Amino acid sequence: MTGERLRFDGWIAGVGTSSGTRLVVGHWPRSPFGAFSDVMVEHPDGERVLLAPSQRIADFVAATYRFDRIEVVPVSVTAVAPAGDSVWLVEAGPLRLRLRTGRRSALGLMLSAVPAPFARSPVWAALCDVPARLLMPGVRTLGRAGPGRREWYGARGLRPVVAADAVLDGVGLGALAPLDPPVAFGFGSAPRSPSLVRVTTTVELAPAGR
Predict the structure, then answer these.
(1) In which domain of life is the source organism classified (predicted)?
(2) In this structure, what DSSP letter does residue 194 have?
């Protein structure tokens, strides 16, 4: 018996900084909650912070991932020239982030050919899990997410992030860097190399009554 499946279609951007702070931005034009964006921040000391645009979204995300602190703040993501090398502007409470993506790699081109039904399938996610871990250490495509929940990711595109400028609480976070160590919000991390991933994420809730 399976529970309700909630599907989120959009992008995940993951970047590290020379200060040691790592940022993961979710931008979801299509979701059960409508269009929204959120940001996960992991500080050098391991503190994990969620920046969410509403209490409802904060409650759902916090029940799926692990955080030490949650802030409900306005969150906006603006993409400029999305057809080519694009610039993303992220504002989330105390955070200001500007990132620029480069051209798609061979892997990115391969992922862009993945049919949408495959990206939604847990079987496809399971098949991709081992190759993903080998190609991008820390990345998982299928796993447990919160009490009684299961989650899987279907990547449909990948671009490198080639530049980023981040300010948190008025302090610059330094130069773009790998996500190292991997972030620890859930069962897997964003890729070590700063990236923007086009993705369909599915969260399967616990069956009713459990």
Answers:
(1) Bacteria
(2) -
Q: How far is CA 126 from CA 3, 5, 122, 153, 188, in A?
A: 18, 16, 6, 9, 14
Among 133, 134, 135, residue whose Cα is nearest residue 187: 133
Q: Is 33 exposed, middle or buried (0-12, 13-18, 19+ CB in 10 A)?
A: middle
- pLDDT of residue 8 exceeding 80: yes
pLDDT > 60? residue 30: yes
d(CA 165, CA 120): 33
What is the signed CA dihedral for 121, 196, 27, 208, rounded to 10 degrees?
30
* Structure-block tokens of residue 205: 């809730």
Residue 46: count of CB within 10 angstroms of its CB: 9
189 and 152 in contact (C-beta within 8 Å)?
Answer: no
Q: What is the pLDDT of residues 72-81, one digit of tens each?
A: 999 999 988 7
